[in-house]
Amino acid sequence: MTELSNTYIVSDEQRRFYDENGYLVIKGLLDFATLYNYKQRFLQICKGTVDKGNITVVKEISLKDKGVTGENLINKLQEIHYDDVFMTYTEHPRVLEVVSQFIGQDLRVMNSMFINKPPGSVSHPPHQDLYYFPFRPVEKIIAAWTAIDDVTIENGCLYVIPKSHKQGILYPHAILTGASRLYHGVQHAAPEDARVHLEMSPGDTVFFHPLLVHGSGANVSKRHRKCVTAHYASERCAYVSVRGTVQEHIAREVEAEAGRRGFELSFEDTWKIKSKSITLPSKL
Ligand SMILES: O=C(O)CCC(=O)C(=O)O
Ligand SMILES: [Fe+2]
Question: Which protein family is named in the record (predicted)?
Answer without folding.
Answer: Belongs to the PhyH family.
